[in-house]
Amino acid sequence: MTAAASRARFAWLRTRGLRLIFFFAYVMLMLTIVEQGRIIQAQQTLIRQLYQDSVELTKARLNQR
After folding, report:
1. Which of 6, 13, 22, 47 lies in disulfide reach of 17, CB 3.0 to 4.6 Å?
2. For the stretch 23-62, what's the b/e string if a residue is b when 16 or more beta carbons lie within 10 angstroms of its beta carbon?
């Protein structure tokens, strides 16, 4: 590889490399936010189901008395 080609590759990396890193970081951040939203939604559903189970259990206990 010639010195000129090596310098040209380094110049390309220097000018665009930082942009690529920021773009990749932004994409990863967006994926993390989407996944957190899905997890929060799943937790809300689970809490609602547990609450309904608790209500049914309380009704069953009161009916036994």
Report:
1. 13
2. eeeeeeeeeeeeeeeeeeeeeeeeeeeeeeeeeeeeeeee
